[in-house]
Write a structure and sequence with these properties.
single chain; 618 residues; alpha+beta; Archaeosine Trna-guanine Transglycosylase, Chain: A, domain 4; Rossmann fold; 4 domains; six-stranded mixed sheet; 18 helices; 30 strands; 29% helix; 22% strand; globular; disordered N terminus
Length: 618
């Protein structure tokens, strides 16, 4: 058994291949030595060896045979390899190993890592690793090499049969045991070692043409023997895979529909479906449609969506006869840049300003109270989404209850369901992306951004980042190295081939708090718009704050700080409007939120999560 499984919090979890395929898995960040493990869910992947298709349960509905569990590295959000994935896999197979294209149902599993790394499963075997580190690379596993053993023409090292026992025991291949090194092999390459009835993989310490007499020739990673080797099976189609999983898919659908009906009955609120243009929201939309629950769908256009996503949303609306509302965030992102600078993985002001804020305003404009919104969210996407559960409230959207009927589905289950229903998918999945969102999202891996860049969508964004970096003393490395994706980048993210890239200073309004008798005085780093501050100060209890001197009651220091930052850096997202019971807030001059003084009850309930305060530059 994998010794790092099912450990208590604080122990380091296994981020490697586990042979037992245990039900519960934990992962740790690849960039920290120790951290509490994260449980995301059960890893559900089996394979029918007779039909050669992946299964989401242990029984094949085609041949009625039992599937074998496929060991998958956690968190195990497996998905089908689509057009770009298959083309890239086969191109690298040919370039690196001289192997002809592989066909059939190929499954991918994204791993934790600094950048995009995916396990590739073929014929139920962990076939290869596909990774991006400035360019796309592929390395076969010993099991994968055994599937295509007769076709390998490059990227190999042949060892003397006498070395087989030591290789199987985990020893490296030493120079005297080398018989042949393929022509394309260079020092540092991932290679396949062929040694009698043993196949292994490792890293070459010699190049073709070298004749070492001692030392390590190949640093061995893993080896398998002939009895554990397999050959390629028949090339099955995804249509066959859908039929093989029919029973399991039907059960998933029935549970999803029942969930929608139960939650709608329990809350008795107007029902919305948030349609983002991704696979998860498509599956959610289908389930709500089949439930018979009356609903209205809406699409939030952030202004930085893929053009194809907007076209896809329109086509789905036509196909299913939906009168879908399109909620536009307008220029909110580009205006937000002026206040906050580039967003980051640790600085996601953009999600609040261009997604959640417009959602709050849309609900306020159309409904008198709260709504129930079905959202395509899954636990395998992140720890935060796993912990949120299937029904939740978001403090940023106080007038909405969120619910997800696919909370426990894997990506493979979602795709199989869409294939079964004949539902179109966003074209960017076929182009190599595993998630669809804003085209410049800082949460993207560099491999994903490279795919988007090749379609010409990032030219303007990179120009902005370049100017931003140069104005703050940084250079092109801050942009091209992906350091821009953090506000406070971790040390490993600042490392480049040409040295360490410094983190950029964060500029903006700063407010010191100075004791002033029984009160406190707020001392801003720059002059404030007093008229604007006086208007926003209405949300505080009467007499709590003197806007002229910026003096405030000591017990209201935190609330006053938020008022100051909101008065200066409001981006007009409208999130606070959803918390105002009196309807005293409105979008007014300068696209900012203002207070109708005659309506305001000074309850301060509008104070809370706010981009201007939460993401203030400290």
């Amino acid at each position: 058994m994998c010794k790092s499984m099912h450990m208590s919090p604080g122990t380091r979890a296994c981020a490697h291949h586990c042979e037992e395929g245990a039900k519960k898995f934990y992962i740790t960040s690849p960039h920290r030595r120790r951290m509490p493990p994260v449980y995301l869910g059960r890893v559900r992947l089996w394979w029918c060896l007779r039909c050669n298709v992946p299964l989401i349960s242990d029984r094949c509905a085609l041949c009625m045979g039992e599937g074998v569990r496929v060991p998958v590295t956690p968190p195990g959000d497996v998905r089908p390899a689509l057009r770009w994935d298959v083309a890239t896999l086969n191109r690298l197979l040919e370039d690196r190993y001289g192997v002809p294209p592989v066909e059939g149902c190929i499954v991918l599993n994204r791993l934790p890592g600094r950048d995009r790394v995916e396990e590739v499963f073929v014929d139920g075997v962990r076939f290869a690793l596909l990774r991006y580190d400035g360019r796309w690379k592929l390395s076969l596993t010993p099991e994968g090499a055994s599937l295509v053993l007769d076709d390998i023409k490059r990227g190999y090292v042949i060892a003397d049969k006498g070395a087989s026992d030591s290789i199987l025991k985990g020893s490296n291949l030493m120079a005297p045991g080398v018989v042949e090194v393929a022509e394309n092999v260079k020092r540092g390459d991932e290679v396949v070692i062929l040694c009698g009835n043993v196949v292994a993989t490792g890293v070459a310490r010699v190049s073709h043409g070298e004749v070492p007499v001692r030392g390590v020739a190949v640093k061995v990673r893993k080896a398998v023997t002939a009895e554990k080797m397999r050959r390629r099976g028949r090339g099955a189609s995804w249509e066959e895979a859908v039929k093989a999983n029919e029973k399991a898919l039907r059960a998933l659908e029935e549970r999803g529909i029942r969930f929608v009906r139960d939650v709608a009955e329990r809350h008795k609120l107007p029902v919305l479906v948030s349609f983002s243009g991704g696979k998860d929201s498509m599956a959610t939309l289908l389930l709500v449609m089949k439930s018979g629950v009356p609903f209205r769908a809406f699409f939030l256009n952030t202004g930085i969506e893929f053009p194809e996503t907007a076209e896809y949303v329109e086509s789905i609306s036509r196909k299913y006869g939906l009168d879908m509302d399109v909620v536009s965030a307008g220029d909110a992102f580009w205006e937000g840049l002026k206040k906050f600078g580039p967003p980051g993985r640790d600085y996601r002001w953009c999600c609040k300003a261009v997604k959640l804020g417009p959602t709050v305003r849309y609900i306020l404009e159309r409904y008198s109270g709260s709504v129930l919104t079905f959202i395509g969210q899954r636990r395998y996407e992140s720890e935060a989404r796993m912990r949120k559960g299937a029904v939740w409230r978001n403090e940023w959207v106080p007038n909405q209850i969120g619910a997800s009927p696919i909370q426990n589905w894997t990506a493979l289950e979602v795709f199989l369901y869409l294939f079964r229903e004949g539902a179109p998918i966003n074209p960017w999945y076929e182009r190599g992306l595993h998630r669809i969102g804003c085209y410049l999202c800082p949460a993207s891996d560099m491999g994903d951004l490279k795919i988007v860049e090749e379609h010409g969508l990032l030219d303007g964004w990179y120009s902005y980042l370049r100017e931003y970096a140069l104005s703050r003393g940084a250079d092109e490395r801050w942009v091209r190295g992906g350091v821009w994706r953090w506000s406070s980048p971790p040390p490993w993210a600042r490392e480049t081939d040409s040295g360490e890239v410094p983190a950029l200073p964060r500029e903006g309004l700063r407010v010191r708090v100075v004791a002033h008798g029984d009160a406190v005085r707020l001392v801003p780093s720059r002059p404030l718009n007093i008229d604007r501050l006086r208007n926003m100060a209405n949300v505080l209890p009467p007499g709590a704050m003197d806007a002229e001197t910026l003096t405030v009651r000591r017990d209201l220091k935190g609330a006053a700080l938020q008022v100051v930052h909101r008065s200066e850096n409001c981006v007009g997202c409208g999130i606070c409007m959803g918390r105002c019971p009196a309807g005293a807030l409105y979008i007014g001059e300068g696209g900012k939120v203002w207070v109708r003084e005659e309506r305001c009850s000074h309850c301060s309930r509008c104070l809370g999560p706010c981009p201007a305060f939460t993401f203030r530059r400290r």
